[in-house]
Amino acid sequence: MSLRVASLFIASFASIAAAGPAFQNFVVQETVRVVPAGFTKVGIAPASQNINLRIALPSRDFAGLEKALFDVSTPSSSNYGNHLSKAEVNAFLAPSDVAIAAVDAWLASHNLIANRSSSVGDWLSVNVAVSKANEMLSAQYENFAHRASGKTYARTLSYSLPSEVADFVVHIHPTTTFNNPRTLRPVISAPKPGIVADATPASCATEITPACLQSLYGIPQTPATETSNSIAYANQADLRSFLKTFRPDISSLTTFTLQTLDGGSNPQQSSEAGIEANLDIQYTIGVATNVPVFFVSVGENFQDGDLGGFLDIVNFLSDEDNVPQVMTTSYGENETDMSKALAFKLCEAYAGFGARGSSILFASGDGSVEGGQPQPCIEYQAAFPAGCPFLTAVGSTHGISPETGSAFSSGGFSNYWGTPDYQADAVAAFLNAQGTTNSGLFNASGRGYPDVSAQGENVQIVSGGSKGGVEGTSCSSPIFASVIGLINDKLIAAGNPPLGFLNPWLYANPGMLNDVTKGSNPGCGAKGFTARAGWDPVTGLGTPNFAKMLAAAGL
């Protein structure tokens, strides 16, 4: 569109807004035909009830960003490692002037002015009463109770937009997304006896500690040296106790940098710190020796419409001039809990971080292939964000000799994203070996996950002053992230860029990982998937082998 045409287009929207009521020809955007499992309708939302609408605008050129991401992330590319700047990424992700003008004019016709949620400008927010939201979106907001948590949310089973603005809005939240407020969390685990290799401490048969991981994966104790390197993801007293017990070679005064969002905090009462925070901090600091660690604490005052902080974290980090070289997150939900349009929009942001040189890791989930669906289930459930192709999903293993895929470890194939080129051969090989097993229960043309795995059972932490074991893929993600943090330290020390988006590098070098060929993740009354030689949707490409990974990184 030429500048002159664009200017006339924008001016026409301004005149429509100034002229009075307009935008009356509505077209349906999204519809949910039945109330999602786990939720119960409790009544019409009161007209005066306030909701914070988050409006996603289409990126100007996501296809260009995706091309740039793979250009700087594929080892065979001449641009490998030449990561983009914040401004370069934002230029791809920012909405067009025409889209901004159209949405602003629509909001102005309702006497509303939106706030920009970040410097990118592709997310807007406006606080309105339910009565106004119903009018703007031709919707009927109702309150729905999530039975397991007892929380109540205002949602609509359908919403529409005026035809004049429909093409300029990707998604509005909260509308049709019924995300589960009980996100992925580790659980207390009971020791499971196993066999250990000669060089591994015998105690690792029942308890996984930093020493076990160092022995099993060849992770060095040598302290990192580069202060520009960082891992973003706790109770200080628990951290001190953990280091004294499991890493006495590290100063027990070692700490982390805290960043809070949505009323998050750094609780120092043992009853408040929680297993999740302690796990993440103890296994990043306890494994990635001396790599600077940033802990992003998200509270309950979500500004992103009860998305659990997903969007708030994205907008916060997109505004940072320097993103952490590694980010690990230990929560997620079922793919069907998230609107496809919303999932795609969040996934675009992860691609942007990867293009800037950040390795994004997410736990794959703890629902095996079922994803916590009500029984009986007739098809396997995919996970989000694990199914996003622009991040690295981490599954769980247990045992030492051999490592075995954990039965709870979520893995499978996305119903939203197709198989990306970087894993096409690996996925095809698995599907060929599997044959007709599980046929019809999953999307054989979907993006496969997890990509990698690490120990996720009997992982020892200190919480509330007491030592105990936990299990879950939320253990595995910070462990794998710590390995990447240590490799980045050596890369930066040698004057090289960090690894950034990992998957093209991982799939180009599968031999640098310990292939796990035992274990399965059964569910829905079926066997689930089975670990095999090569990639599989239980353990991915395998677990870390630090020396081989370092060599594959050119060190």
Automatic annotation (TrEMBL):
Question: Does the keyword Aminoacyl-tRNA synthetase feature in the UniProt annotation?
Answer: no
Key word Metal-binding present: yes
What Gene3D superfamilies is this protein classified in?
Answer: Peptidase S8/S53 domain
Query: Which region is the signal sequence?
Result: 1-19
Q: Where are the transmembrane segments?
A: none
What InterPro entries does UniProt report for this protein, alphabetically? Peptidase_S8/S53_dom_sf, S53_propep, Sedolisin_dom, Tripeptidyl-peptidase_I
Q: Which residues form the Peptidase S53 domain?
A: 207-555
Cofactor: binding comment = Binds 1 Ca(2+) ion per subunit.
Q: Name the domain of life.
A: Eukaryota
Q: Which cofactor does it need?
A: Ca(2+)
A Pfam short name: Pro-kuma_activ
Which residues are catalytic?
276 (charge relay system), 280 (charge relay system), 474 (charge relay system)
Q: Which GO terms describe its molecular function?
A: metal ion binding; serine-type endopeptidase activity; tripeptidyl-peptidase activity
Q: Which CDD domains match?
A: Peptidases_S53 (cd04056), Pro-peptidase_S53 (cd11377)
Task: List positions binding Ca(2+).
Answer: 515-516, 534, 536
GO CC annotation terms, alphabetical = extracellular region
Q: Where in the cell is it found?
A: Secreted, Extracellular space
GO biological process terms, semicolon-separated: proteolysis
| Entry keywords, A to Z | Calcium, Hydrolase, Metal-binding, Protease, Serine protease, Signal, Zymogen
Q: What is this protein called?
A: Family S53 protease
Q: What is the lineage of its organism?
A: Eukaryota, Fungi, Dikarya, Basidiomycota, Agaricomycotina
